[in-house]
Design brief:
By secondary structure, the chain is of the alpha/beta class. It folds into 2 domains: about 230 residues, 4-Layer Sandwich (Metallo-beta-lactamase, Chain A); about 180 residues, Rossmann fold (3-Layer(aba) Sandwich), CATH 3.40.50. The protein is about 35% helix and about 20% strand. It is built from 14 helices and 20 strands. A 7-stranded mixed beta sheet has the order 6-7-8-9-10-19-20, with helices on one face. Strands 13-12-14-11-15-18 form a 6-stranded parallel beta sheet, sandwiched between helices. Helix 4 packs antiparallel against helix 5 and helix 4 runs antiparallel to helix 8. It is globular and about 70 Å long. The termini are close together. About 45% of the residues are buried.
Length: about 425
């Protein structure tokens, strides 16, 4: 995107899921990275940041602006992504390149206006998606006129645990709004708690099996720990159980979140305080960091809740836990978030009876369950609720960051409910705003 004489990017993410993901990640950028002046990041998830090291390797040398929590999360996430890459025969980038990228990060506090040069200023506002996530407000001056462009980033669902609700925005000349769940509604958090409590009681007490939860290391894992602790605190789970967080990245991310306690919501701070005062009765969480510890979990046949990455099951230690639990009718696999087309997680959610893991065809005998109320993304009604804060329609509204059916459905709801002019851009489209 260009602003005056300044060329910049909002996010630089890695494609995830689908047969074309690797080809897209390896493709040449459609621009010269050396000519980009700066990058603005909405949050730390790899689908928004995972190609930053590649951008730097191809010549980008400018600053990368993000919130302090995003910068700290990237300090563990990008090296982890590089470590995954280095195990491939043709890695996208190395650990050294990821570390070089980290040196360009500049932390910006929420609500602070910063000068980007060329008559441009920027402000980050809490998006309520994960710790450090931001809505970006960009003001540019052109021939004396000031224009405001807003990038929603990934917006969180109001009332979610850990993070605050998304901040309201009331005006924009141009708006880019996400649409991941633009055609769907989430279950309420109360209904989700009921559903998870029922799954825990049935699997642990009646079936005598394990619960395996594929979860993203940043955001989703910590939400699950919050939810499990809430159920224990309210005595809604009858059977004692152990929680294993089997993801080094999730362990590091949890430490970052605990460090940034002022950025989490009041309910989470109260739950942390309760846990510290009631260590004997509080949920017992075990973080398994070494591969040897992870492998030993295959010997745990019942009484375990195993949370492991990746959230869509295409990489990481979760594949080993699926290998050992999918064939067992007494176990339950619980999906808690969006599963992209083409991923192993999507195939399981869609009802596959067998899946291929480590070269073998594995039968799916375990129960497959989906919790619909734990998405970190706003659903259709929450997205519309956020848009209703605008005092008047933006001159240009672009529905982005969603599969085409979700984006088109959400654009139609905006037209029908709000009367705005909306477009759904495709890859390679350009607009003069």
């Amino acid at each position: 995107m260009r602003g005056g004489e300044r060329a910049f990017l909002v996010d630089c993410g890695m494609f995830q899921g689908g047969a074309d993901a690797d080809r897209k990640n390896r493709a040449r950028f459609a621009f010269d990275p050396a000519h980009i002046d700066f990058v603005l990041l909405t949050h730390a998830h790899i689908d928004h940041t995972g190609l930053l090291p590649r951008l730097v390797e191809r010549g980008f040398k400018g600053p990368v602006y993000a919130t302090a929590a995003t910068c700290e999360l990237l300090g563990v996430m990008l090296p982890d992504a590089a470590h995954v890459q280095e195990r491939e025969s043709a890695p996208l980038y190395s650990l050294a390149q990821a570390q070089a990228c980290l040196r360009l990060l500049q932390a910006i506090d929420y609500e602070r206006s910063i000068d980007l040069g060329g008559g441009m200023r920027c402000r980050f506002r809490d998006a309520g998606h994960i710790l450090g996530s931001a809505i970006i407000e960009l003001r540019s001056r052109d021939n004396g006129a000031v224009r405001k462009t807003v990038f929603s980033g990934d917006l969180g669902q109001p009332g979610r645990p850990i993070v605050n609700d998304p901040r309201c925005v009331t005006e924009a000349d141009a708006l880019m709004v996400e649409s991941t769940y633009g055609n769907r509604l989430h279950k309420s958090l109360a209904a989700t708690e009921d559903e998870l409590a029922a799954l825990l009681n049935d699997t642990l007490a009646r079936r005598r099996g394990n619960i395996v939860i594929p979860a993203f290391a940043v955001g989703r894992t910590q939400e699950l720990l919050h939810l499990l602790a809430t159920l224990v605190r309210s005595s809604r789970v009858r059977e004692p159980f152990a929680v294993y967080v089997d993801s080094p990245l999730a362990t590091q991310a949890t430490r970052v979140i605990l460090k940034h306690r002022d950025d989490v919501d009041v309910e989470t701070r109260e739950l942390i305080a309760w846990g510290r005062k009631n260590r004997d009765s509080a949920i017992q969480v075990r973080f398994t960091e070494s591969l040897e510890e992870s492998k030993r979990l295959k010997d745990v046949k019942h009484g375990a809740v195993i949370i492991s990455a990746s959230g869509m099951c295409d990489a990481g230690r979760i594949k080993y836990h699926l290998l050992h639990n999918l064939p067992r009718a007494e176990s339950t696999i619980v999906f808690t978030g969006f599963q992209a087309a083409g991923t192993l997680g999507r195939r399981l959610v869609d009802g596959a009876r067998t899946v291929r893991l480590f070269g073998d065809e594995i039968p799916v005998r375990a129960r497959i369950a989906t919790l619909g109320g734990l998405s970190a993304h706003a659903d259709q009604e929450a997205l519309l609720g956020w848009l209703r804060n605008f005092r008047q329609p933006p001159a240009h509204t672009f529905v982005v960051h969603g599969e085409i059916l979700a984006a088109e459905a959400f654009a139609q709801r905006i037209r029908a409910d709000l009367g705005w002019q909306v477009s759904v851009p495709h890859a390679g489209d350009a607009a003069d705003v």
